[in-house]
Specification:
Elements: H1 4-19, H2 30-39, H3 45-58, H4 63-68, H5 71-77, H6 84-100, H7 109-117, H8 124-133, H9 144-153, H10 162-172, H11 177-193, H12 211-216
Keywords: 4Fe-4S, Iron, Iron-sulfur, Metal-binding
GO molecular function: 4 iron, 4 sulfur cluster binding; catalytic activity; metal ion binding
Protein name: HhH-GPD domain-containing protein
Length: 218
């Protein structure tokens, strides 16, 4: 069997050839990326866009403005994202970290990740979204889309803990942040449009790689 590195590189090439550059993350500033990473927990991105639009109509989008905003006002503004009271608290927790640590960007990757994970409401996936898309650090985000695609292809057998899977991919596919950024974005668009919960295998250009597609053929 070919190495995981070779297989991942082929997957990237096929996705990129089909979809092209995705230019992620859709945001006007690194702070907006961080905000979106918190708000997108357990909701669709369209709902996050509505929440961010509401916030922009109320105030400047920066940590100082949001941490001083009354919690109730913040919660109502981000209501479209769901779990709005909980997320308002998480947003202000994140703002507190940023304001208390103006030199956060100077930390190395493990230290920065540890600081983010120390914020109540920020787990590994959200922390890695922020590391990759806001701080441009080379981390591979493991989300539901990544698990679904790699699981169906047959490269992930059963449940693999977040850290184990992230480290396996990063060790196999050492790359710059821009490469991980593009790869993750391509996985997301493919998992949303083709490799959905109810997969559209007949429309998939990856069927030659995929165990699930092979098993589904008559």
């Amino acid at each position: 069997m070919r190495s995981l590195k070779a297989r991942l590189e082929e997957l990237f090439e096929k996705l990129f050839a089909h979809y092209g550059a995705q230019n992620w993350w859709p945001a006007d500033s690194p702070f907006e990326v961080m905000l979106g990473a918190v708000l997108t927990q357990n909701t669709a991105w369209t709902n996050v866009e509505k929440a961010i639009h509401n916030l922009k109509s109320l105030s400047e989008l920066n940590p100082q403005a949001l941490i001083t905003m009354p919690r109730e006002s913040l919660a109502q503004a981000i209501r479209p994202s769901g779990y709005y009271n909980l997320k308002a608290e998480r947003v202000q927790n994140l703002c507190g970290l940023l304001l208390d640590n103006p030199a956060l960007h100077r930390l190395d990757d493990p230290q920065l990740r540890e600081q983010l994970l120390g914020v109540t409401g920020i787990g590994p996936e959200t922390a890695d979204d922020i590391l990759l898309y806001a701080f441009h650090r080379p981390v591979f985000v493991i989300d539901a889309y990544t698990r679904r695609l790699l699981g169906r292809i047959g490269w992930v057998d059963g449940y693999v803990p977040y850290e184990a899977l992230r480290q396996t991919i990063e060790q196999a596919l050492v790359g710059e942040a821009s490469y991980y950024n593009e790869f993750h974005a391509l996985i997301v668009i493919h998992a949303k449009s083709v490799c959905c919960k109810q997969p559209r295998c007949n429309a998939c250009h990856l069927s030659g790689l995929c165990n699930y597609a092979a098993d589904s053929r008559p």
